[in-house]
């Protein structure tokens, strides 16, 4: 994920395809178990390392939109409450997995899905933003999965971690779902769901793009200069 363009492209692919990762397919396919399935997916993405590829942002947005259009027959308040609870429970689970397993949990070779660079970028994000990373990381695909475990590995104070996780859970799980619900009232949104989902994913990786640009600028300004003692 060293290049934000790659991050955006890969996140968009995960959000819209393959078919089994498309929110427009997932929710109807779950039928009467849609609410339980949504909760399980959000829990897995927020707390289990194997869930990092799941389409959390677009799934939340689509769930809200489906409530607005009547496709999902669940009260909005109940949907938001359960999704926030699952996001928080996922964070708690991921934190204690990291705390119990320690650094060894990230000591594994690359595979088709898992890449060491995911861990490295998450660590950089965590070190840069500190406590705020738990909140901000919610809105960054892949980072939101690994950062919960990394907080546990780093033995971040549990009470402080839970506080920031709660704030982030409300802002992300409820916020993105409500955004989908409110925008679902517009005909353009209903008729161009895939376009809107691309926009949602693009916004979610915006922090990566911003940091990439800032890092490039800072690197360009940091031109090494010779000390007077070293000059002839």
Automatic annotation (TrEMBL):
Pfam families xref list: VTT_dom
Membrane topology: Multi-pass membrane protein
Keyword flag Cell inner membrane: no
Domain VTT intervals: 54-181
Alphabetical list of InterPro entries matching this protein: DedA-like, VTT_dom
Residue spans crossing the bilayer: 25-43, 50-70, 76-98, 164-183, 195-213
Keywords: Cell membrane, Membrane, Transmembrane, Transmembrane helix
N-terminal signal peptide: none
Cellular compartments annotated: Cell membrane
Principal place of residence: membrane
Family to which this protein belongs: Belongs to the DedA family.
Listed name of the protein: VTT domain-containing protein
């Amino acid at each position: 994920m060293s290049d934000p363009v790659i991050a955006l492209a890969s996140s968009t692919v995960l959000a819209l395809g393959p078919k089994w990762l498309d929110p427009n397919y997932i929710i109807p396919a779950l039928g009467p178990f849609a609410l339980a399935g949504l909760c399980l997916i959000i829990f897995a993405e927020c707390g289990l390392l194997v869930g990092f590829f799941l389409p959390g942002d677009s799934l939340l947005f689509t769930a809200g939109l489906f409530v607005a259009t009547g496709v999902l027959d669940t009260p909005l308040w109940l949907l938001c409450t359960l999704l926030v609870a699952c996001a928080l429970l996922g964070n708690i689970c991921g934190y204690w997995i990291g705390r119990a397993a320690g650094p060894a949990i990230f000591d594994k070779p690359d595979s088709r899905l898992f890449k060491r660079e995911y861990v490295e970028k998450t660590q950089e994000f965590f070190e840069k933003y500190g406590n705020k990373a738990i909140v901000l990381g919610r809105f960054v695909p892949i980072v939101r999965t690994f950062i919960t475990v990394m907080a546990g590995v780093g033995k971040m104070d549990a009470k402080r971690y839970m506080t920031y996780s709660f704030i982030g859970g409300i802002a992300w799980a409820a916020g993105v779902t409500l955004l989908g619900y409110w925008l679902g009232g517009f005909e353009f949104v209903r008729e161009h769901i895939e376009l809107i989902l691309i926009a949602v994913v693009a916004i979610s990786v915006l922090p990566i793009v911003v940091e990439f640009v800032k890092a490039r600028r800072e690197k360009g300004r940091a031109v090494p200069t010779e000390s007077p003692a070293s000059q002839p």
